[in-house]
Amino acid sequence: MVAAPGMALGATDPYAASPWRKLSDAEWRKRLDAGTYNVLRREGTELAGTSPLNREKRRGTYACAGCALPLFKSDWKFESGTGWPSFYTYIKGSLGKKTDHKIGVARTEYHCARCLGHQGHVFPDGPRPTGLRYCNNGDALRFIPT
């Protein structure tokens, strides 16, 4: 049995049968623009400061750009100064996590729990109440205003 990122083997994965997980690479390429495809399906990173979501101040929800699963609420967004949309918590059950060593240092990477699309990394330098910073690629998100 293979678990979603961050799930223990044997744990119940509520999205295991999701049709989003059955899409081929070719189908993802057709559905997503090049930047979003690179981030979500190839675990890429957009250039810092390039996302219009950095300036988004309206109330609403941030959802996965791949499958529209709600991931973050606008009330949890904060200005981190990093150049990427940042949040101090997430909607429970919406993210899976795994360890990433791509830059030679262990980091916690997180993905959409439904389609397994790469979102970003979480760091222990965020504001209260969690002290965490979910540093998200804007290309991996869609904003849905309230």
Automatic annotation (TrEMBL):
PROSITE patterns: MSRB. Its EC number is 1.8.4.12. This is peptide-methionine (R)-S-oxide reductase. It is an enzyme of class 1 (oxidoreductase). The keyword Oxidoreductase applies. Residues 25-146 form the MsrB domain. InterPro entries: Met_Sox_Rdtase_MsrB, Met_Sox_Rdtase_MsrB_dom, Mss4-like_sf. GO terms for molecular function: peptide-methionine (R)-S-oxide reductase activity. It comes from the Bacteria. Keywords: Oxidoreductase. Gene3D superfamilies: Peptide methionine sulfoxide reductase. It comes from Phenylobacterium koreense. It catalyses: L-methionyl-[protein] + [thioredoxin]-disulfide + H2O = L-methionyl-(R)-S-oxide-[protein] + [thioredoxin]-dithiol. The keyword Transport does not apply.
